[in-house]
Amino acid sequence: MLDTTNPNSLHYTTDTAFYNIKGGVAEELGSLKISLAIKNPERPRKYRCKVDLYEHNKVIQIAREASEKLDLRVDLVEIDLDTLTDLLEEYQEQGIKEEVTPSVQVPQATAKKCIEFLSQPNLLNKINELLQQSGIVGESYNRLILFVIASSYKMPHQLNALINGSSGSGKSHLLERITNAIPQEDVITLTRITERSLYNYQETELMHKCLLIEDWDGLEQGAEYALRELISKGMITSSVSVKHKKNGEIRGEVRKVYGAVSTLAATTKGHIYEDNMNRVFVISVDESMEQTNRIIEYQDNKRSGKITNQSEQESIEFLQHCVRMLKPLEVVNPYAHKIKLPVESKNVRRLNNLFKAFVNQITLIHQYQRELDKENRLITTKEDIIQSLDILFDAIMLKVDELDGNLRNFFERLKAYILDKGKSYEFNQYELRQAFNLSKSSVHRYIQELLDYSYIQRKAGSPAKGYKYSITIWEDHQQKRDEIRAFLLNQLKRIK
Predict the structure, then answer these.
(1) With left for phi above 0 and alpha for psi between -120 and 50, is residue 58 left, alpha or beta?
(2) SS3 at position 443
(3) Do 398 and 281 form a contact (C-beta atoms < 8 A)?
(4) What's the pLDDT tens digit per position in 425-464?
């Protein structure tokens, strides 16, 4: 019998000899390389070697050498090594099976509570309350959007999000908290992705997983491309060289890794490669002073014991169980052709597809409240569309606006500040740092981007003493928002 008490030192004992495998067994099923020590129980000497037990001729040679050195019968050593190979194969396969994370079974009583929760009116508001109780302060729309997107990982059509914010704005914390509410057996957190690493996953290892990418800015170009193809096509392929098992010939082989993933990523960049932007919902983190005050209040309440880790954990675990109770059903949207997005949107074709997929996910979250058609598909309701438009309105505006979310917020603050002093007022970067309580690098970046878009112009000054600037474009962004909101609401009113 094989003794596996110590996985780094396996023991096998027979009437013939003692066999000790040092360092355990390799994980690859196509190889059985081991460091082997053989000992005659009646002799003090040992025979040591490294061998792949799948190489028959080498095993025969080792049996012969060990029998000569240890004074053992060669035929009995060969039988022992053959039996040891079978035992190690079973041990190796069992180890790989144990590495596969088993699905978590929701207790019956908890499942009943989850279904009752998912069946109640105003479900999205209830989910938002649980997200707040789980430790996500403020960001009421962002946290709900991100939860809807993250929960799509197990559905027929997955959604993806990129959250934008300056360094230290809390975007990574927000994404981490959101993925805490997703079943942890289905979450993969990645701090770094090398150019080839995604191609090296097992064929179905990434299927129906939620990927948290903590820093999009750190991705190498090849990794960005692979991730984009994984999101877009649901599969990445690579050509690799492999040795033929029978004749040892080196051949080319196509290796496939299937996706069906939902990704959440954070970035400090206002704009990234457009092909990536078009495949995701771009969300801007709240960097307002009001949000800062909410975070400080939460931190103080946590320190004083008014908020406990236990209460947060209970909300997190309940949300995880609710997601586990959602079934990957197909959705049919009878109103799909009745809602048109603003033509001003950048790449409106892909945005339209993203929006309709988001509506589908809202329907899926309400699946315990929605009817099924004859083909067992969930039927989207008008309410699903109304809620989707309400939640996604800011995300749609980001697609319409040529300025990214943080730059837009800065520019609106700048306009309000200058308007009090007169539209022709000239300002410098130091003045804005003091007025807005921003770092030198942040103000410099915003000013350069506004210059690039011609929203401001450089006036008098020099590189040594600094420049003065003035605003050149005074468009009414709020009016634009109101017009687009009215455009969407008028379409809703016509839906019967």
Answers:
(1) alpha
(2) helix
(3) no
(4) 999 999 999 988 888 888 998 999 999 989 999 988 888 8
